[in-house]
Amino acid sequence: MKTKLYIFIFLLSFTAFSQELPPIIKYSSSTYGAGNQNWMISQDQNHYVFFANNEGLLEFNGAVWELYPSPNETIIRSVKVIGNKVFTGCYMEFGFWTRKANGKLKYVSLSKTIKSKILDDEQFWNILNYDQWVIFQSLNRIYIYDSKTGGFQIIAPKNNITKSFRTKNALFFQTINEGLFEIESGKGRLVSDNVILQTNKIVNIFAIDEGLLIQTQSNGFYKLIGTVLTKFSTEVDSELAASSVYSSQLLSDGSFALGTVSNGVFIVKNDGKIKYHITQNKGLSNNTVLSLFEDADKNLWAGLDNGINCINLQSPIQSFVDDTGILGTVYTSKLYNGKLYVGTNQGLFYKNYQTNDEFKFVNGTKGQVWSLFEYDGTLFCGHDSGTFVIENTIAKNIFSASGTWKFETVPNQKGILLQGNYYGMSVLTKINNQWSFRNKVAGFDYSSKYFEVTNSLEVFVSHEYKGVFRLQLDPNLLKTNPFKTYKTPTKGKNASLTKFNNTIYYANKEGIFKLNDKTKQFNKDKLLSSIFEKEEYTSGKLIVDNSNKIWLFSKNYIHYFSLSKLSKQLKQNIIPIPASLTNSMLGYENITQISNSNYLIGTTDGYYILNLNDLSFKNYTVLITDVMTNRQNEIFKNQTILNEGRFHYDENNITINYTVPEYNKYINAEFQYLLEGFQEDWSAWNAKTSVNFKNLPSGDYTFKVQAKFANGTLNDAVVYSFRVEKPWYLVNLALFIYFIFFLIMARLIHKTYKNYYQKQKEKLIEENNLLLEIKELENEQEVMRVRNEQLSLDVDTKNRELAVSTMSLNSKNELLAFIKDDLKKTTDDGNRSIKSVISTINKNISEGDSWSVFKEAFDNADKDFLKKVKLAHPSLTPNDLRLCAYLRLNLSSKEVAPLLNISVRSVEIKRYRLRKKMELSHEQGLVEYILSV
Questions:
Q1: 544 pairs with which residues across the strands?
Q2: Phi then psi for 312, rounded to 5 degrees?
Q3: Confidence of residue 789 (pLDDT cuts 50, 70, 90)
Q4: I need a labelling partner for 270 at 20 to 30 A (CA). Which of 118, 161, 572, 882 fits?
């Protein structure tokens, strides 16, 4: 019995689990940086969303969360945007926030003006507005604030207030054990004291044509028409009774969103039928829903007991999330005979299409399902265990020798299929209306995950680790001739191959290549390859759908190309859904057309269904949220965004934040910006919502940012102008002072240079004069040199003359001596006259007289020589000085001997003695020394 009960509970949970739901964006407390609980939600005209959070007022602009602490550090219980003010209520405090010029919020207290009238320990749980009045509701009283006069009215019922409500034309509140009241003329008027309304807490009130639709916490809906209260039954009454409704919201399509304490969110149509039931095991962060709010884009926000969720009710995407792991990663899908089949890593599952039925497991298919293929009314399943034929949801194995990747038809051969296996390829045939394995293709044993067959029975196979093969099958599909391996294009991670428009395409990280049928070579297709530029490649998976569209997947987009109706050019379409959000397994991306506009895309935790016809979005507005500047190594400072910014010259590190306040899970906005005065071209498109400019030089700048969303560029770029001021030393006054200073300095420099050049001129003249004087001196010196040379020549001449005269005198003396000697020979005869002649001769050859004459002449020719020699050598005798004089005249010993009237030998001796007296060294010549004196 227990086993059956467990099976029933399992099936019940799996039944609920199998519903396709709108996408849900989860924001945890760590993401938004505030408390877990969120008590009330509102939105302003810029589409910023505000939350009454445990830690304060929480703001979200689509890109950045910002928390404003409550004014008295208590829990903010209520928030309501009215006009350009954000009203909040908390513990014994209420007021409003206004936006400053820098984009940040500033709080203004209203409760301070009536502080004495506020009850002790009073908290304000709800805020309503009606015309010019703002209603702050606590559990004890209602405070009505007149925004025009600033005055207050207070409604103080006898019993505690459970909650206040507003319809289009009325305000209501409920008190414990009294019933429902309407506010009229600033007072409470009892509308109904029905016992049901006295004993059941009202969660919300909605205006209907007949009267009021009242939703209670545990007993569902009631209609109040006049004074008559009747039950309005729905499909979820029993579940609501067990779940306890805490919050609710009337949606724009007329349905009701009901947030419960323990069972998530119910979306109920206005006829009472359930549309969605979203719980924690279907994607909610938490089952306790404290607040609900439908924003301007018809997203449903849920303030939870632990986090915030945004449900994209109007999204063209419906997701099926398997948080339990029962279904697993979806590799393939197929709509067949009214049933939706999904092949996963856990096996093959099916359910009735467009129902909330549970997925059922196809027995015998446990394991990885790689492909589903329909042909000739039969559904084939490529499985890790081989090939299955699915008949009436029952799997029949027809091939088990190897795992099967995919199936392809063979041109012009009906009843034949070629399947790619883990080890080569094999043939399936239909005999007697039954499919069976026929043969393996001999000659090729490589894994054939991706392959295509041409009309000439050529087979092209993509192998992730080997590259591309080309095979030629024989007509009977029994074998292949030796196959060719292409060198280009090369192998690649997550590469694939497919046939599109009768042409084979191959994709890897280097691009997408198209087969030339004539040359049998692959050529790069520029259009298709462009999607992998800018590091967009994640997978080369190529998929062709039933409408002859080719689908590709990149890092940030899903692409599909279709044939143009008016040309041969392919038409490109881009869906800006990044791989990180789709949660697809790289290399195993899959998309299946299940109707004209609906496509099922498998993910690692289920799948989602995309409706191409609904893939259109409103024209959002891009906004600049804040501008911050900072000095180097200092904190950022917020600047005005309402007016042109003016920043100090050293506050030139500027950060600009911008956003498109949209809250779609799968399709995100992209931005590009231009800073005029700094950049010439727009930046590349990217999803970043902030840009930083560092060390901007002084000058005027205009920042422009534009956005695109779901392939469409939004209207007009938003513009923000600012100026980085010049430093004080570059302002106009400083420049004027610099100019005056420059003129003065130029004048001084000019004067200085003038004086300098004048001095240089004078110096040059002086130098020229000096040079002239030096030239004159040089000329005089030259004259003196010439004179000296002339004198030297004269001295030499006189020396020669002296030497000649000396020699003449010597010759005379020799002659006289010779005559004397001859005469002496005749003296023996006693001739007195001869003696007289000899006496006369003796007088004429007197050496003293000749020496005196010579000395006088020598002194005239060579002044002071004899004095210098005598001074240098005092021991020299007159005969020594005489010898020195003769040697000075450069006379030889032979020439000196007659002058001294001695022999040559005696002259040599005298010279030797003279050397001794002069103490000359052996190496020093006597004549050289005497000539040098």
A1: 550
A2: -80, 80
A3: confident
A4: 161
CA–CA distance, 279 with 247 (Å, rounded to integer): 15
In 3-state terms, what secondary structure has residue 244?
coil
Backbone angle region of 581, left / alpha / beta, with phi > 0 → left and psi within -120 to 50 → alpha: alpha
User: pLDDT grade, residue 6 (50/70/90)?
Assistant: very low
Q: What is the rounded CA–CA span in Å between residue 182 and residue 165?
A: 9
Helix residue ranges per DSSP H, 183-245: 195-199, 237-243
Q: In the block, which residue shows the tokens 């030096």? A: 774
Contact 369, 381 (CB under 8 A): yes
Residue-wise pLDDT tens digits, 481-529: 889 999 999 998 899 999 999 999 999 999 999 999 999 999 999 999 9
**What letter does residue 142 receive in the DSSP assignment?**
E
Q: Label the pairing between strands 645-647 and 718-724.
A: parallel
Give the rounded distance of the alpha carbon of 291 from its chain centre.
39
Percent of the chain, pLDDT > 90?
A: 59
**Rounded distance between C-alpha atoms, residue 267 and residue 285, angstroms:** 17
Q: Which residues lie below 8 Å from residue 756, measured CB to CB, with a gap of 6+?
A: none
Question: CA–CA separation, 291 vs 51, rounded Å?
Answer: 9
pLDDT at 12: 37
Query: Taking a C-beta distance cutoff of 8 angstroms, is the pair 75, 90 a contact?
Result: yes
Please report, as a single letter, which amino acid is at residue 432.
N
- What pairs with residue 308 in β-bridges? 27, 303
Question: What Å distances lie between residue 636 and 139, 627, 639, 694, CA to CA?
Answer: 42, 9, 9, 13
DSSP 889: T
Q: Which of 820, 891, 819, 896 is nearest to 851 (CA)?
A: 896
Distance, in Å, from the CA atom of 279 to the CA atom of 259, rounded to the nearest integer, reads: 10
Average pLDDT score, the chain:
88
Please report, as a single letter, which amino acid is at residue 521.
Answer: Q
114 or 912, which is more confident? 114
- At 885, the pLDDT band (50, 70, 90 cuts) reads confident
**How does DSSP assign 382-409, residue by residue?**
EETTEEEEEETTEEEEEE-SS-EEEEEE
Question: H or E element: which one contains 205?
Answer: strand 202-207
Distances (CA, A) of 799 to 266, 435, 792, 891: 148, 149, 10, 11
Where does residue 257 rank: exposed (0-12), middle (13-18), buried (19+ CB within 10 A)?
A: buried
Q: Which two tokens stand for residue 826?
A: 């005749």
Using CA atoms, how far residue 923 sits from 915, 918, 926, 928, 929, in Å, is: 11, 14, 10, 11, 11
Length of the chain: 933
Which tops the pLDDT comparison, 620 or 380?
A: 380
Question: How far apart are the C-alpha atoms of 214 and 91, rounded to whole Å?
Answer: 29
- Residue 928 binned pLDDT confidence (cut-offs 50, 70, 90): confident
Token couple for 864? 């002071």
| Phi, psi of 3, rounded to the nearest 5 degrees | -60, -45
Nearest Cα to Cα of residue 154 among 123, 186, 109, 199? 186
Between strands 606-611 and 24-27, the pairing is: unpaired
Answer whether 461's CB lies under 8 Å from 407's CB.
no
pTM higher than 0.90: no
Alpha-carbon dihedral sign for residues 572, 575, 579, 585: negative
Closest to 444 (Cα-Cα) out of 420, 416, 428: 420
Going 171 to 220 to 284 to 354, the CA torsion angle's sign is negative
Joined tokens for residue 176: 């414990």
Of 191, 46, 90, the residue nearest 660 (C-alpha): 46
In the Cβ-directed half-sphere of 453, how many Cα atoms lie within 13 Å?
23
Rounded CA separation 67/543 (Å):
46
The enclosing H or E element of 294 equals strand 289-294
CA distance 101 to 682: 27
- pLDDT at residue 26 tops 70: yes
